[in-house]
Amino acid sequence: MMTLHRVKTLLSLTPLLIMGCSLQADDSQQSAPLPALVSEPSAASIAELETAIADLLKMDRVTIADDAFTRSSRLSLERAPHTDPNGQLLMGRNFELPQTVQLWISDKTCFIATADNQRSAPLAHTQCEQE
Q: For residue 50, what are the CA distances in angstroms to 35, 45, 91, 93, 123?
């Protein structure tokens, strides 16, 4: 009687054990994100990066160079200073620190993330490769 109870218990737990092993196997197949570079820069990829970065940093608009992320996976951004028509700073010095974003790749998917990795956004049209 005791043996039959053990067999029933073992049989009832077997699907859970198998499911747990398969879930663990799936997790190990995902590669860790790696720093990346834009492999095929284009106007579309620059526009996508600008939009994604602006959304991440909660800004209206961001402008980046055409060769951004082609030599380094990191990019520092700072606000354009407010100047008068003569080019003089309106508020004196700007004490705001630059913000940094980084391009990453994981399983052939590129994404941009804030330096603290608190927020990220996938990039559908930007082609990238490991740095």
A: 18, 9, 26, 26, 11
pTM of the predicted model, to two decimals?
Answer: 0.69
- In this prediction, residue 23 carries a pLDDT of 45
Exposed / middle / buried, residue 120 (Cβ in 10 Å: 0-12, 13-18, 19+): middle
For 53-65, what is the mean pLDDT? 92
Residue with tokens 């284009």: 42
Rounded distance, CA 103 to CA 82, Å?
A: 29
Domain ranges within the chain, ordered by starting residue: 34-78+98-130
Q: Are 64 and 71 in contact (CB under 8 A)?
A: no
Q: What does the pLDDT read at residue 102?
A: 95
Are the beta carbons of 104 and 33 closer than 8 angstroms?
yes
